Amino acid sequence: MTRFVEYPPLRKATFLLAAASSILTACGAFGQLFKVVVAGDSRTLRERPSGQPSNAPSRPALLILAIDGIGRDLLYSMLGSDELPELAALIGKSGSSFPHAYFAPDVLTTVPSTTGVAWATIFTGVSPAEHGFSGNEFFLRETKQFAAPIPVSVHASAEALSVFTEGYANKFLSAPTIYELMRERDPYVNIWVSMSQFYRGADQLLMTRRSAIAAALEAFLEGYTDKNLPRSVWADLDEEDIDVVVERLGKEPLPDVLTIYLFGTDDWAHISPQRPAFARKNYMKEVIDPAIGTLRKRLLEKNALDNRYVILVSDHGHTQVMKDDVHALSNKDANDPPAVLRKAGYRVRPFEAQVKDSDPFQSVLAYQGAIAYVYLADRSSCADGSSPCDWTRPPRYRQDVLPAADGAHPHPTYVAVAERLRDLAVGLHGERAGDVLLLAHNGDRDRPEDRFYFATPYHSWHGSPSEQDSRIPLVVAHAKRSTAALQATVRSYLGQNPRAQAIGALLVGLREGKAGTKTPVSGRPPEQEAAPSPRDK
After folding, report:
1. H-type alpha helices, 173-330
2. How far is Cα 189 from Cα 178, in angstroms, rounded to an integer?
3. Integer Cα distance of 123 and 143 in angstroms
């Protein structure tokens, strides 16, 4: 049984109690990132055996454009109103319509609606409880490891950097990626992934110049101050991301599957003093769309769109918040979660990426923006205050869980909360989402002044189960297929109430060339999509 609860000492947040099998959530956006120079650049992940074909063109090719943090309504309205001419041309706009594209109107992202867990779900095709990547940061009870591939509450420069240098994020996936599944079905498939956290099974990882990455990471670190940072920090990174791909396309055999991940839209929304809808809109028009034009030109030169699906997808939306210590629920004052837990009698794990094995902490906090996870130990295993707790034992319900929670109800504007919490908590790795879920008043409030979030100060966050955070775009286009045919195929994989994991199955199915058989569900054309929610302004 799961109850929504409100924690009396912290009226700024609503809490979810995960009684039996820990039901919780995860979030997105790079929190405290790091001040390092990346030594990466593109690298080969898999050496193709001598004599093996360079690609496998007999099946449909894929171009996956993964645009972080754009949200459904904003992207669809911009495509329908001619504000993104290059992106619209890439998916075959003709006049005022898209005769070769299908816009899915009803796909929901994960709870929490954040970067790490959402992309892990999309790129594996299974729920968070199955693939095990439950948040931007999370705690593994069996090893007492604090995983911080996208740090929010801790400084974890080495861990975040190793996402690209050592596959750190990939290591937490307990399910195969879509690329591994594609290779099982077609061993000759040639897969390139550019700037994505998840690339296990690909042939090539394409990276921008180290100076561009270093500048973006430096800017994130400075983003916690009151300085106004230039948008060019992220624009340079995304533009070079496209440039690297375009250059490689001109020199090497075409990849069968090409994933390009662009994260400046999301990061700039977090940092920009503009409202997130305007920040993202301008960024898409002035940075992303011209870069897509360069990519489209090269693809046309190579005849690479003749039998290639183009898929546009994102991971979450955005909600404006106040950038100050009052609304940022961090770890500094008496109303922040660590202080509340200490007052309730818990020893809280230090906010560091690594702590000594002998540390006797009884609770762990992992921040996810609008949501935070609370992990609780069986305190009887470390009652003396000096011995480390046995984290392989679950917490006792009455003695360990109930003192951290008290009852209430979810806000009515939240979308499919129970179903998405089940995705997060019911499965092999459900415990990675913690024992109590803290849900800040965020997406359920109309005014930014009434919203709170678990992180250091930002101008925008996400992670809640709200409409504006949860509705994500999914556009599937193919130059030789009609909208009706595409709709039938897409809906056969999405079903009636699609969530993020269905996208992974769809991508694998498109590569196999399997057409849909189920009755299609009607979708609205982009020009009929709703304008961005007032909460997103």
Report:
1. 178-185, 210-222, 232-249, 264-271, 276-283, 289-301
2. 12
3. 25
Strands 138-140 and 145-147: antiparallel
Return d(Cα 39, Cα 170) in angstroms, integer: 19
pLDDT > 90: what percent of the chain?
A: 70
Q: Of 82-91, 248-257, 266-275, where does the model show the most confidence?
A: 82-91
Predicted TM-score (pTM) of the model is 0.90
Residue 70 near residue 83, CB atoms below 8 Å: no
Q: What is the architecture, at CATH level 2, of domain 55-128+170-319+467-536?
A: 3-Layer(aba) Sandwich (3.40)
Report the half-sphere exposure of 155 (CA within 13 A, side-chain side).
6
The SS3 of residue 480 is coil
The mean-pLDDT minimum among 75-84, 336-345, 417-426, 512-521 falls in: 512-521
Q: Provide the token pair at 521.
A: 């569900």
Angle of the 210-222 helix axis to the 264-271 helix axis, nearest 10 = 30
Between CA 189 and CA 176 the distance in angstroms is 16
For residue 363, list its beta bridge partners: 348, 376
What 3-state DSSP class applies to 206?
strand
Pairwise CA distance, residues 419 & 357, whole Å: 36
Which pLDDT value is given to residue 220? 58
For the segment 351-367, the average pLDDT, to the nearest whole number, is 95
Span 118-133, pLDDT tens digits:
999 999 999 999 999 9
Tokens matching residue 160: 């975040």
Alpha carbon 334 to chain centroid distance? 31
- Pick from 176, 267, 280, 158: nearest CA to 222: 267
* Residue-range domain boundaries for the chain: 2-30+322-461, 55-128+170-319+467-536
The tokens describing 125, both together, are 């095709």
C-beta separation of 156 from 46 below 8 A: no
pLDDT in tens, 13-50: 444 433 222 332 233 333 322 222 333 478 899 988 88
CA dihedral 216, 164, 25, 316 (to 10 degrees): 50
Which tokens go with 362?
């009884």
- What pLDDT, on the 0 to 100 scale, is given for residue 15? 45
**With pLDDT > 70 as the criterion, what percentage of the chain qualifies?**
84
The residues that bridge with 80 in the sheet, in sequence order, are: none
Spell out the alpha helix ranges (H) of 223-275.
Answer: 232-249, 264-271
Look at residue 300 and tell me whether its pLDDT is greater than 60.
yes
In angstroms, the CA 174 to CA 176 distance is 7
Among candidates 369, 363, 368, which has minimal Cα distance to 338? 363
Token couple for 18: 């995960």
Could you tell me the two tokens for 207? 């990276």
For residues 86-108, b (16+ Cβ closer than 10 Å) or e, as one string? bbbebbbbeeeebebbbbbbbbb
**pLDDT (tens digit, 9 = 90+) per residue, 202-250?**
999 998 876 666 566 656 545 555 567 789 888 998 999 999 999 999 9
Q: How far apart are CA 199 and CA 206, in angstroms?
A: 10
Angle made by CA atoms 410, 412, 417, in degrees to the nearest 5? 60
